[in-house]
Amino acid sequence: MSSKKFIVNQDELTIGTPDELSDEQMEVFQKCIHALKPWKKGPLNLFGTHIDSEWRSDMKWARLQRGIPDLEDMVVCDLGCGNGYFMYRMLEYSPKLVVGIDPNLHAWLEFSLFQRVSGVTNLKFEYLRGDIMSSLPGMFDVVFCLGVLYHTPDPIGMLKDIHKSMKGKSTLIVDCQGIDGDDDIALFPKKRYTNMRGVYFLPTMSCLQNWLRRANFTNIEVIFSEELSTEEQRTTDWAPLRSLQESLDPEDTSKTVEGYPRAHRFYVKCRK
């Protein structure tokens, strides 16, 4: 199916209009999208239904656009792609192919829904872990690694795997949660961070840059650095879960509920 309305260059990824579905099809579609809660990445407009996701991914994309290289006819990787919101936003820049890699089944289901109704053929989702990158030597012109590094116990190893997957003189865009400060250090939470499991190293900006240098990346450029806000990550009707606000100390929002420093968001561009 190829929907009549398909918009990828606005904040809200839009696929389809209500009049494209019969009443019976709309009823089935509504059951489907409600069954896919929580929606983590968006915002989305699917056949006239506005989905306000937990993450305002449009805000991240607006920042990333400051540093995006030429994607026309390029082979691009979105490592940790989630439901593919950013992959669809990349279509504005006419890439040859965008490969999303993520081991999250829920995200794959949402992406598969988008693909079923959009008719797009140059976006591919690979249900794989990030360590597959070392098995794809010299494949990508551009790699986006967004919100991934702090979820791995070996961030430098992951960066080296990414380096192997890239062509010569290619570009890496990194988005990583971290902590404020000038020291070359990373926070290593005891168990959880903002109620999240699977968070390992949260670097300072200088520490993140050192990781990139250790993985043989050059020409490091800071695109954005700012405290993570509850405007960007929050609970919604489409994402009824504990989000950032519920994970901060109610008496001191500069700290998490575990007592750690509140997260900052670092966006960096570099070259192989």
Walk me through what this model shows:
The chain is an alpha/beta fold and 272 residues long. It has six helices and 17 strands. The protein has helices at 23-35, 57-64, 85-90, 105-118, 155-165, 205-214, and strands spanning 6-7, 13-15, 41-42, 44-46, 49-51, 55-56, 75-79, 97-101, 123-126, 140-146, 166-178, 186-187, 202-203, 218-227, 248-249, 252-256, 264-271. Strands 9-8-7-10-11-17-14 form a seven-stranded mixed beta sheet. The chain is globular and about 60 Å long.
Q: Strands of the biggest beta sheet: in what spatial order? A: 9-8-7-10-11-17-14
Distance between the termini: 39 Å
- Please give the number of β-strands: 17
Low-confidence stretches: none
Kindly state the percentage of residues in helix: 10-25%
- Looking at the structure, what is the overall shape? globular
Provide the succession of SSEs.
EEHEEEEHEHEHEEHEEEHEEEE
Mean pLDDT across every amino acid position: 96
Largest sheet: 7 strands, mixed
Strand content: 25-35%
Helix count equals 6
Radius of gyration: 19 Å
Helix/sheet category: alpha/beta
